[in-house]
Design goal:
- This protein is an alpha+beta fold and 124 residues long.
- The chain has one domain (2-122): Barwin-like endoglucanases (Beta Barrel), CATH 2.40.40.
- Helix content is 23%, strand content 36%.
- The protein has helices at 15-18, 24-31, 38-44, 114-122; strands at residues 2-8, 33-36, 51-56, 59-67, 75-79, 89-91, 94-96, 100-107.
- Strand 6 (89-91) and strand 7 form a beta hairpin.
- The model has no long low-confidence stretch (mean pLDDT 86).
């Protein structure tokens, strides 16, 4: 399903703040999430407990969905983080991180570890 993606900086999920306080596992559990309205989620997924794979023209990433009724329908919010960096990019020397078209699909894949994302970045 196509949605609009916006990255956000929410203090309780802020990688910059939490990186010094949490283990890698706790960081992944608290930051590698996407906020989505329950009604939008239910249009995509027929069962609970499923991760979401987000794909843009810049790449893809698997994130844990978190229901949030304050998120507009047909939108998905992702915290600014190393996970968000996998699906954002630039156009004409401007970083794009708001209102990106994103394909969202259910997946049984796990959310990637920080170490895997760092290794992937080294190999670019």
């Amino acid at each position: 399903m196509k949605l609009l993606l916006s990255t956000i900086r929410e203090l309780k999920y802020d990688q910059k703040i939490l990186i010094n306080e949490l283990s890698e596992k706790e960081l992944k559990d608290n930051i590698a999430i996407c906020l989505i309205h329950p009604k939008t989620y239910n249009k995509i997924v027929s069962k609970s407990g499923v991760n979401l794979k987000l794909t843009t023209s810049y790449g893809s990433v698997v994130l844990k969905p978190v229901w949030d009724e304050s998120i507009p329908l047909e939108m998905i919010y992702v915290n600014k983080s190393i996970w968000a960096n996998q699906i954002t990019g630039d156009f004409k020397n401007k970083i794009l991180f708001k209102n990106l078209e994103v394909e969202v699909e259910p997946t049984e894949e796990d959310v990637p570890e920080i170490s895997n994302l760092l290794e992937k970045m080294k190999n670019l």
